[in-house]
Amino acid sequence: MTTTKITNGTVFNNGRLLQADLLIEDGKVTALGHDLPAASETIDAAGKLVAPGLVDVHVHFRDPGQTQKETLATGAAAAVHGGYTTVGAMPNVIPAPDTPARVATQVAENRKQLLKIAQYATITTGRSGDQLVDFAGVKAAGAFAVSNDGSGVQTAGTMYLAMQEAAKHDLPLAAHVEDDSLLFGGALNAGKRAAELGVPGIPGVAESAQLARDLVLAQATGVHYHVCHVSTKESVELIRQAKAHGIKVTAEVSPHHLLLCDEDIEAGNTNYKMNPPLRGKADQEALLAGLLDGTIDFIATDHAPHTAADKGHDFVKAANGITGLETAFPLLYTHLVLTGKATLNQLLNWMSTAPAEAFKLPAGHLEPGQAADLAIFDLDHKWQFKNEDYRSKGHNTPFTGWQVQGATVLTMVDGKVVYRAKED
User: Which of the following is catalytic: 302, 310, 373, 378?
Assistant: First the structure.
């Protein structure tokens, strides 16, 4: 039997940071404390943080159908490089996982990768239109939730029926909230910066109007309704009110919406183009406030890799999306924790425990009996994001070149080391 002991680290356990050792046997944590038995392998984590593997319920791995952008293997490599051990793969691949058979095929491929990939099924056939998928069938085939991410469900009746089915089969419904009739051909947030750049704008109501509709429908159906990549202050307030009224809603925010606003967009740099777009400064501030007060439940990257050609157009024609799995923890540690805006405990909860608990995933906890899915971080390591260091095929991020602090030293899934940083 293979045993591993991780010694001398600061362990994040049930919301606390404590000095302790970990003993791992047959892929599970078997003991946490001091004076633990000897093991066949010892990892010295002195001066390092030992955390539950990070959990991201919103990633795009592009496989099958768009493997020039990313593959399951490169997406998994990027994830473990960033300290993630569980991710939720969105269904906008080709063909979409919109039948039990397609979900089962995708789940089987996911299981071959370095980390744990939970699979979304679509809400509707082809991730568009009004024909609902077989909710019972896709759940039986292994889907952990449903989403049409990348597209809002345009018809209220379709969303109402989908929520009824999702509630009936205990499937979270994760919504990309966007009313297409309110987009007006926009590419950036409607406001001063879009006008300066001569780019048509997308008003914030394209998000908040559909969100308001969905929250009323969620109240009527009792579904677990999850809001993807919240971006406006109005959306934050709607979610806050919905929670106060007992609506079963959870919400996520992306690192880029927390750290950037439309004022930061550089002329001609389409790595700043994503959907939803970077909003105004007041929206950015409301997102952090919502995260801090519990209105927004956790952080998800919306990792969306593209080729250079996808981004090599003007703002109107360039693809939406940025990568995030390899940059999220260092960025947020540097710009939230080291600046005193949030604590390390809060950040680790938002990036591991909270998303796992919201979606009932067996992750986010580092304690005896749990899978040995963990990441070791060197919080003192200062470095710079460089294209040559990314494991993802996609290099489309405006954060390249940023100086950060905090780096993944080692990532472990089921007690197996799946990433280890090279010695300097």
Answer: 302
